[in-house]
Write a structure and sequence with these properties.
By secondary structure, this protein is of the alpha+beta class. The protein has one domain. The protein is about 45% helix and about 20% strand. It contains four helices and four strands, in the order αββααββα. The chain has helices at about 5-20, 60-70, 70-80, 115-140, and strands spanning about 35-40, 45-55, 85-90, 95-105. The protein has a four-stranded antiparallel β-sheet, covered by helices on one side. It starts with a helix and ends with a helix.
Length: about 140
Amino acid sequence: MYSKEETQKLKREFWVAFAEKFPRKWVLYDTKIKDFSFKFYVDNKKAQVLVDIENRNDEKRIGYFEKLESLKTILEEEFIKDLVFEKNFVLENGKTISRIWVEKSGVGFSNKNHWDAIFNFYYEKMNALELFYLEYDEVIKDI
């Protein structure tokens, strides 16, 4: 087990190593849609690439989610498979958001032997999501 400080140091090292392997600017929060973002997540069991729709207005949140859901066939056939769509995903803090994600299980940031597999997974999946978004952003924004 790592101390809290050791865990934070290792996570920093992980993200620096990822940025060095794939030095590029990701879209992430720069989607031009309020509370609509792309995220990377990792713990000691899995790595995930996420689309989080966190709009406080449930009608807008669900509107963006349903727009993405309507594009699911295109998304899965042309860009990225194995996505999980959850209209009402409850965060640990109790907040309900909409989330779409893809996951690689059996990997963790504390095992440096997993890092290359995680980095490659991140690059492949996030790149595919961004390409999809850049092609269909006008459609998605039109709710």
